[in-house]
Amino acid sequence: MRVHGPAARPRPKLSRFGSALLAPLLVAACADSGSLDTTAASAVDSAGVRIVSLPGDGVDQPMEEALELPPHLRLGVVEGEEALQFSTPNGAARLSDGRLVVSESGTRLRLFDADGSFVRWIGAMGDGPREFAAVSSVGILDGDTIAVYDGRRRRIVLYEPGGGFVREAAVQLPERFTQVRSSRFFSDGRFFVEAANPGFDQPDAAERRERIAAILFDRHGAEPQILDEADGMTLRIETVGESEGGQQMRLMVNITPTFFPLSRFTGDRGGVHRWDGARFEVRRLDDAGVLREIIRVDRAARPVTSEVIRTYENEGPGSNVSPQLREIREQVLASRMYADSLPHFQVVQPAPDGSLWLGEFTGHVGGTPTRWWRISPDGELKGYLDLPEGFRVLAFEEGEVLGVERDELDVPFVVGYRVR
Questions:
Q1: Quick one: which of 151, 206, 375, 389 has the fewest CB in 10 Å?
Q2: CA dihedral angle for residue 213, residue 214, residue 219, residue 222, rounded to 10 degrees
Q3: How many CB atoms lie within 10 A of CB 310?
Q4: Residue 71: φ, ψ to 5°
Q5: Which has the minimum average pLDDT: 90-94, 318-322, 391-395?
Q6: What whole-number distance in Å separates Cα of residue 419 and Cα of residue 402?
Q7: Would you say 372 and 53 are in contact if contact means Cβ atoms under 8 Å apart?
Q8: pTM
């Protein structure tokens, strides 16, 4: 450890750790794709677990498929129709006929035609029946039923493909867990959450250890099954001063070494995926929580250098932060621990075809991955796809990636790029 709408636009700048990759038409050039070796060494251990070992050279090779520029879909306006004004889009999903559902935390769902024309609003905001307060995730179930998870009210709300209300159900986490970190709908209607226990059940402990769990609910948001658990962050409660009224100011400090590998979970219809970005490993568990497959990529570790640390620590709060908070931050930085190596990836996105997309670790506070690796349903590493700098992925669909881009005025647009 160490201390301390479909219209041509200007071609986006592409970046990977600060270096630009430019192509005249296709982002991921495939001229050399024939040299990509995705040969996997596969074995089954005594417990029946399939172990797939992938060569590391595939990490540095582009996919055969490529990102087409410019985007074929661009939804949003700076001023104008309310339905095209976005604030913080947080989800997108295609129905089988190509229609698109877009969600935002603080407003209703939007339904668009396949060509990007607005069709209608879906749902209503509020705390009453048939309403939702804050959309955390959206998904499309079998039969094109539209599913919404309201993270504030802990409720699932279902709608017909045309937007009519179907039903709603409350979601009750197991007693030990109080927070939902992420959520996904399986196409068969089951519901997955990555939940956390941040240690609030340890009020007298000076240090608290999070527990993270993969929890699967049935089609009615009931009968939760804890499929797997992992350790999360280590937290410490510190007294950092007194307020003007004489009350103690206490701060929960994350004392987990920065870049330290922590297991995370995501899920799709094939089961639950437990992933470790530091070891370049994804483990697949079935819907009973039994380990079925381990996929590993043999890639050399990336050391945490003094330059990496300096860059990370310089990305703190700006000048509008109070002197007291700035002093607290300096104290935290002075005692911060760092892991010896960087994670290889920081997020996993399942795709409808069973593929897994792994977003490369950026090394920046709140960084958005620009490089994504695809692992096929049969466990082959298909190479990487580079996305435009600043593009935030919402979903990988068949032959398409949907996400958010912001213009020079920081106005968000929902954008779709074809991948083929």
A1: 206
A2: -20
A3: 10
A4: -65, 145
A5: 318-322
A6: 11
A7: no
A8: 0.84
